[in-house]
């Protein structure tokens, strides 16, 4: 599990970390749970699945295209939905 590993990394360090993760996945079949709020690291590590969690529950799930959509639209629609459910 990588929890916001991209936080505070410059682009060179981000590439090094991503190369290590990708190598471990390829060589060992390692499963990776990558938690991030930004798609920057996803330029280098392509996700198989993307899940959006709101209040401890999966609010939406999809493939890499969901991460791209989140980057364009943000998370506001999930915050509004969470407030409506409360």
Please explain how this structure is put together.
The chain is an alpha+beta fold and 86 residues long. The chain folds into two domains: 1-46, no CATH class; 48-86, no CATH class. It has three helices and four strands. It has helices spanning 11-28, 64-73, 76-85, and strands at 2-3, 34-35, 50-54, 57-62. The strands form two sheets. The chain has a two-stranded parallel ribbon. A two-stranded antiparallel ribbon has the order 3-4. The chain starts with a strand and ends with a helix. The relative contact order is 0.14.
Question: Features of this protein?
Answer:
2 domains, single chain, two-stranded antiparallel ribbon, two-stranded parallel sheet, 3 helices, alpha+beta, 86 residues, globular
Give the integer mean of the pLDDT values.
Answer: 90
Oligomeric state as shown: single chain
Given as residue ranges, the uncertain stretches (5+ residues, pLDDT < 50) are none
Count of domains:
2
Number of strands: 4
Termini separation comes to: 30 Å
Q: What's the arrangement of strands in the largest beta sheet?
A: 1-2
Specify the biggest β-sheet: 2 strands, parallel
Which structural category do the helix and sheet elements fall into? alpha+beta
Rg, nearest Å:
14 Å
Number of helices: 3
Query: Which percent band covers the strand fraction?
Result: 15-25%
Q: Rough shape? A: globular
Secondary-structure element string = EHEEEHH
Percent helix, as a range, is 40-55%
């Amino acid at each position: 599990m990588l929890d916001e590993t991209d936080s505070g990394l410059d682009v060179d360090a981000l590439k090094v970390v991503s190369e290590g993760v990708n190598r471990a996945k390829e060589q060992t079949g390692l499963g990776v749970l990558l938690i991030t709020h930004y798609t920057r690291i996803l330029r280098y590590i392509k996700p198989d699945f993307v899940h959006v969690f709101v209040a401890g529950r999966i609010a939406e799930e999809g493939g890499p295209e969901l991460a791209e959509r989140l980057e364009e639209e943000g998370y506001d629609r999930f915050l509004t939905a969470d407030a409506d459910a409360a």
